[in-house]
Design a protein that fits this description.
The protein is built from seven helices and 14 strands. By secondary structure, the chain is of the alpha/beta class. Bound molecules: zinc ion (ZN).
């Protein structure tokens, strides 16, 4: 797949002022109001190279944002990887040992295996366990507009519609390689009230991604009910575009070391005809299963066992 590294329009913020944390976990800051209410966790840098979320949280922390009720926790997740951010090879700081967004399985977290990311996930787990609402802030390789990944449970989709942005909502099951943070614990249970959303704020390092991260975060906090009317209303008054929902029906996992996309897909391409070859994986052709199939987040680098692309269709 043709790919050019996007321009790095964003400056990675200095996170050293946040190192100590205030609840005993480095780079995690939690503020509670006297009035009771839900606990909202804003999580940036699950992937160390996706700096738009760090910019949004840094701005809110420096502005002194506090909840009017309940609790807001600001978490910078994979700072160890982020600290290696290098403009000459910005993707390298995605993680150190393994993807922090594939380890959120209780058996793995309780197990004996060790890695930088497992160590960080184990440190974050006690605070994640207390979340009522979680927003996990990411960006993407592909140059498409922002996407909200809601998982399959109706509760997350309903909340994403109340948040009102972005325009594209994606219902998906996650990855074969391991569960994401947004699939951890009670977030996974369709009957439990806990909500977790993953926002892909657009392409990595584009200035627009930080704007999307900030607006989504404000609206998420407002809808969760932890902000004062004065803080919430200006954001909720912003006009929003009509939201559309894509249901992910297939997830193509790379099976060989010889995986290639057959055309230059940008992401969110709609392939009109069923049976169109979109990729080859070793000797196998990967074809679209139905008409008007949408390709969601095709990867730049093919790694066996990882998701290459998700296929979906518009639900509304
Ligand atoms: Zn990410």
């Amino acid at each position: 797949m043709p790919y050019t590294t996007p321009l790095i329009e964003l400056d990675p913020p200095d996170l050293s002022p946040y190192r100590a944390g205030n609840i005993g976990i480095p780079y995690v800051w939690s503020y509670a109001a006297t009035e009771p209410g839900p606990h909202v966790i804003l999580n940036a840098l699950t992937h160390g190279n996706e700096i738009c979320g760090a910019i949004a949280l840094d701005r809110l922390l420096r502005a002194g944002l506090r909840p009017a009720r309940g609790k807001i926790t600001f978490a910078f997740a994979n700072v160890a990887a982020y600290e290696g951010f290098d403009r000459r090879d910005p993707t390298a700081s995605r993680y150190l040992d393994e993807d922090l967004n594939r380890v959120w399985d209780p058996a793995m977290l309780d197990g004996p295996r060790r890695s930088c990311e497992l160590q960080r996930a184990r440190a974050l787990r006690p605070i994640i366990d207390t979340a009522d609402f979680l927003l996990d802030i990411h960006s993407m390789n592909v140059a498409t507009g922002p996407l909200m990944l809601t998982g399959m449970a109706e509760k997350h989709l309903a909340f994403a519609r109340r948040v009102g942005v972005p325009a594209m909502l994606v219902r998906d099951e996650g990855h074969a390689a391991g569960p994401r943070l947004r699939e951890y614990g009670r977030f996974r249970d369709p009957e439990a009230p806990q909500i977790a959303l993953l926002i892909e704020c657009g392409q990595h390092w584009r200035e627009e991604s930080a704007t999307v991260a900030l607006e989504t975060t404000w609206r998420f906090l407002a809808v969760a009910g932890v902000l004062s009317a004065r803080d919430a209303e200006p954001w909720l008054a912003h006009p929003t575009a009509r939201q559309r929902t894509v249901l992910v029906t297939h997830r193509i996992t790379i099976a060989t070391d010889d995986f290639h996309f057959d055309e230059s897909f940008k992401g969110l391409d709609v392939v009109p005809r069923a049976g169109t070859i979109i990729a080859r994986d070793g000797l196998n052709d990967i074809r679209t299963p139905y008409d008007n199939c949408i390709l969601i987040m095709p990867v730049r680098r093919s790694v066996r066992g990882q998701t290459a692309v998700r296929l979906g269709r518009f639900e509304d």
